[in-house]
Protein: Family 65 glycosyl hydrolase
Organism: Streptomyces humicola
Amino acid sequence: MISHSAYAVEPWCLRETGLHLDVLAQSESVFALSNGHVGWRGNLDEGEPHGLPGCYLNGVHELHPLPYAEAGYGFPESGQTVINVTNGKLIRLLVDDEPFDVRYGRLRSHERVLDLRAGLLHRVCEWTSPAGRTVRVRSTRLVSFTHRAIAAIAYEVEPLDGQVNLVVQSELVADEQLPELTGDPRVAAALESPLQPEEHTAVGTRLRLVHCTASSDLRLAAAADHVVQGPEPTRTSSESSNDVGRLTVTTVLGPGETFRLEKLVSYGWSGVRSLPAVRDQVEAALAGARSTGWQGLVDQQREFLDDFWRHADVEVDGDAEIQQAVRFALFHVLQAGARAEQRPLPAKGLTGSGYDGHCFWDTETFVLPLLTYTSPEPVAEALRWRQGTLPAARARARQLGLKGATFPWRTIEGSECSGYWPAGTAAFHINADIAAAVVRYVSATGDEDFERETGVELLVETARLWHSLGHHDSHGRFHIDGVTGPDEYSALADDNVYTNLMARANLQAAADAAERHAGEAAALGVDQEETARWRDAAKAMTVAYNSALGIHEQSAGFTRHQVWDFAGTLPEEYPLMLHFPYVDLYRKQVIKQADLVLAMYLCGDAFEHDQKARNFAYYEPLTVRDSSLSACVQCVMAAEVGHLRLAYDYLGEAALMDLEDLERNTRDGLHIASLAGTWMGLVAGFGGMRDYADVLHFAPRLPERLNRLAFSMLVRGRCLHVDITNSRVTYALTEGEPLRISHDGETMTVSRNTPQTRPVKPPTALPEPAQPAGRRPGHLR
Ligand code: BGC
């Protein structure tokens, strides 16, 4: 993508300077706009050509049966898939009776710019129709951060060579035809015509369609209104049918005249509200947007983003590509979360239908950390969504014969819909990942109301799960057997170190929270005996260590397995899960994604520095990174153990995952966790930020390539600014009361008048470990 000649590297935007149909689907993902509630892929205004048309409403999905060749007890029976909802983006144009279609006539110029500060997608192109008429078309699109239900487009046409007759059709279209998706199992199962019509109207410039889904029983409405400006005579008419609402405008433009259409679109859905209620909801949202007006929406968008960037920007001197990539990443992660409001944050955000629109542990482990320190409100909302799904998680635990709650590995509405339990339900670590996100959010914000109302319940129910899932052996040691850790190439392992350490933290945090909030805990039936049992289990938790090798075992017995034949694996045989059977992968030493290495990052205080270096050296040659979640974690730990060059290569891989389409599936949607991993790599990798102790800790170190790295973080109502060069780091407070932090082990207080500057200690350079043959980071670029 970005290495494609059509893309430019710029600090505050993503610019495409020519239209290349070979990367059209990818461009639709990178130019997607969303606020976490409404998502519009960056499809062309006129709808065609397209890679994958997409409009999404967070939570709107359809159910489908999950067939099994051999069924088993507790297998989920129903799958959930995100659906393409009513398309409100469409604006078709006829120039002297020729449809504006870039595949015909001549596209003289084309440019799209995603402006990361303004939150707008601009397009300008000049097109000569097959009959020789030339027009300039400009459009600007937004999905509003301040009006949650609203998306809007300003669309302009001007003739460039004499008078033209124009017909503009602005539409709402339901059940669009979708292209056939690929055979990749990770790509959403296509659902044909999921929307059933309930009501349609067109009155003046206003359109509305209401539909419902057949099995998930959701009702959704889309409405649009328009402001039309053109020379006299400009005429409008509107019509609607089951799946189409259409405003048609006709006008004649002379030289120097411009036609302009402003289109406001509102969306709403509900699983419980009646048709009149949902209809009124979208009409009300539209009325609100009309009163704000196009310019008002644009101004509010800017204000919202100014505030975000003030607290979230990351400056990178020395690598323009990474500078662009990290801002692109921050913007898209914000888009995924900003207004999700008690709905899941899917692995692809609302940028595509990949992974069926499911939400995984990606949210709590990769996405929420970034938001916690830059825009914390969506974090509380995302965790409240998890709390809202506790009834399903409790029922799932009962079904599995467990206590507390078992959160789903993948879901949209809260129940498990992973049909492959070894890399689904067995990945119990998601429960501890949710607990860790609660602890991180509370400690970063000091939000006690949240802890009392939401945190305690999530911590208690997940602690109960761990206590019932594990067991004490005859020596009193606590084991958690038969689980799948982050490495999905080793399923059903015993004592996975990542899982055990995260469960240990979960059990301790639950006991602590129950003591702080005795009333809430008692209401959940927690007594002192129960918290004592959690503490005992935590204290006795097994952490598998192999003293002969001087390293931790990823899971008990892992290092005894045969090592995968990396030399005999062809480059085109990656990702391995699409070319080799799991029965083979599961019994070999081959790691899909950082597992023990992730444990060393998130639970770093459970390891000695030397152990970290040895573990890293051992696991690095076994890790193939068949998941986009790996590179950022390997970046962080490579930096910590002193391999700064390698860390930088990993950063590049995480940062450019979508801009370079490294996994060849950006067309299905962006890799939101890897985007968040760009921030993680810079802040936790080169900034050395760790948050597992009472005070935030930093151990900065820059790779050779960078001259400077600066970032801000929101911590308990303060804004901390960290500015790192090769020789020194300055910690300054731009907002709030004095803050205690630690730098390389020294605790200090930073206040608004007293920034603190310290020298940066370069790490001792160790020999770099090798990666599996052909899997060095950077090999994809
Ligand atoms: C990874 C999982 C991840 C999922 C969604 C899989 O390939 O192995 O860890 O949650 O993708 O991103």
Remarks:
- Confidence is low (pLDDT under 50) at residues 184-188.
